Amino acid sequence: MKAIVAHEWGGPEVLQLNEVATPEPGPGEVRIRLAAAGINPAETYIRSGVYAHMPTLPAILGGDGAGRIDALGAGVADWNIGDRVYIAGTVGGLLSGTYAECTIRGAGEVFPLPDNTTFAAGAGIGVPYATAYYGLFNRGRAKPGETLFIHGASGAVGTAAIQLARAQGLTVIGSAGSERGLDLVREQGAHHAVDHRAAGYLDEVRARAGGRGPELILEMLANVNLQADLDLVAPFGRIVVVGNRGTIEVNPRTAMMKELDVIGIALWNCPPDDLAAIHKALVAGLENGTLRPVIGREMRLADAAGAHEAVLEPGAYGRIVLKIAD
Question: At what angle do helices 126-133 and 156-167 cross, to 10 degrees?
């Protein structure tokens, strides 16, 4: 089978299209013939050799994907050949194995992909939607009727969070840095979209949140925005840090006076039972149409190196996926 293999850690150029042996499922495992794989920013850090959880070399990266089961290991009774499924990074192991035509997962580590969801969209579910759900509800304690500000809402996690929050009755404000991004934020259901390039945009967020600020903020770039979030969020509010690329100096007194919770999340830390429950909720949302993964760009498997460059560029519009098969 064809696969993108890293034989060393380094820049995007280490991702090479190779011919490798097609894996066979062991007892309790299934093989998925992949139609699409999702690109996660964390996979670029793995490729660079600087991530907290590293596979061994040579490595096939990729945690998220979708396709059909085409082989069953001994003892597998809950799946059939031909079943449409998606798989998700952090469920069952490292972010590895989906930049390929086939991959192996434990039978309990795959999820049904409803017929109303394309394989490309299925590849967009895993890490972004589970991260958004975990940040909003498990850690952020979001409640119906609250106001949520998504600071950087046009990427894969941001668009997922808009859909999830709207389905649970929150008022959603999302920011973006381009007209296309603002249009996307509105299209996904945000009540208000603000341009975070504009002077005074945080004043607009505060006004849209009734003058006291949002009760909950999802922050995608904490090394730039955390102090602004501390100033903006409502008293007794919560700030959930989803993304960060460096350091920042903040004044903790702001958090003291307003009695704020600043919460960092890493999906690796989500307990397995909670992660299983999250994916049950995600499958239900796909089935009833409230969740609609946004695919901003499809690229060929051979273009994985370019996809690793694109996923870190500003102005993301939903998910980047590798198209592997029809």
Answer: 50
